[in-house]
From TrEMBL:
<keyword id="KW-0812">Transmembrane</keyword>
<comment type="similarity">
    <text>Belongs to the ExbD/TolR family.</text>
</comment>
<dbReference type="GO" id="GO:0015031">
    <property type="term" value="P:protein transport"/>
</dbReference>
<keyword id="KW-0653">Protein transport</keyword>
<dbReference type="GO" id="GO:0022857">
    <property type="term" value="F:transmembrane transporter activity"/>
</dbReference>
<keyword id="KW-1003">Cell membrane</keyword>
<protein>
    <submittedName>
        <fullName>Biopolymer transport protein ExbD</fullName>
    </submittedName>
</protein>
<keyword id="KW-1133">Transmembrane helix</keyword>
<dbReference type="GO" id="GO:0005886">
    <property type="term" value="C:plasma membrane"/>
</dbReference>
<keyword id="KW-0813">Transport</keyword>
<dbReference type="Pfam" id="PF02472">
    <property type="entry name" value="ExbD"/>
</dbReference>
<keyword id="KW-0472">Membrane</keyword>
<dbReference type="InterPro" id="IPR003400">
    <property type="entry name" value="ExbD"/>
</dbReference>
Length: 202
């Protein structure tokens, strides 16, 4: 009876090198997802020189209860109609000083886009997804109106101008030109989105 030969040995000397190369490969090619937040620029804390009086008609109140229902200006509103209502408020031009406004010029609504404030109030039990959806619709209202004015003045959407301006690869000279255009549109419809203190038990 013949003896079986010993099984061939596997050379494991380079296995560590191969594992290291695979590790490097996966580290380089893997994308890590990051949580998307809300892009908000908070104003510096500066005491006002004089007391600012804000008329109630210049405040657009949006309340979200714990069930995700919207109460806009004391009226129950479907979330799909929120953007149009916010645009109508911002674009109203009630005091006649806004030359570019195309709203109804209702004297009982906002006087001017520069004076219009959107106030958002949530319940402590409001779902985060509902909160984000409402925020998106309100910011979308500003963007729609800014896009309209950017098209009128520069034949481009405001969102495109802003994206090009914020792109780090944009030429510095071009960036200066874009900065002026972006600021001009932002001044026409300044984003005044205020968050009131969160309530509970609504």
């Amino acid at each position: 009876m013949s003896k079986r030969g010993a099984p061939p040995e596997v050379n494991a000397g380079s296995m560590a090198d191969i594992a290291f190369l695979l590790l490097i490969f996966f580290l380089v090619t893997t994308t890590i997802e990051t949580d998307a937040g809300l892009d908000r620029m908070l104003p510096p804390i500066e005491p006002p020189d004089t007391d600012v009086v804000i008329k109630q008609k210049n405040i657009f109140e949006v309340n979200i209860n714990k069930n995700g229902q919207l109460l806009v200006e004391d009226e129950l509103v479907d979330i799909k109609n929120l953007r149009e209502k916010a645009k109508a408020f911002l674009d109203n031009g009630g005091d006649g000083t806004c030359t570019y406004c195309k709203g109804q010029k209702n004297p009982e609504s906002s006087d001017n886009p520069t004076k219009a404030i959107i106030s958002l109030k949530n319940d402590r039990e409001t779902k985060y997804s509902t909160y984000i959806t409402v925020q998106n619709e309100l910011v979308g209202a500003y963007n729609d109106l800014r896009n309209r004015e950017a098209q009128r003045l520069f034949k481009r959407d405001f969102t495109d101008l802003e994206a090009e301006y914020l792109n780090p690869e944009t030429d510095p000279a071009r960036k200066e030109d874009l900065k002026e255009k972006v600021k001009r549109i932002q001044d026409l419809f300044p984003q005044k989105l205020s968050e009131a203190e969160t309530s509970s038990g609504n």
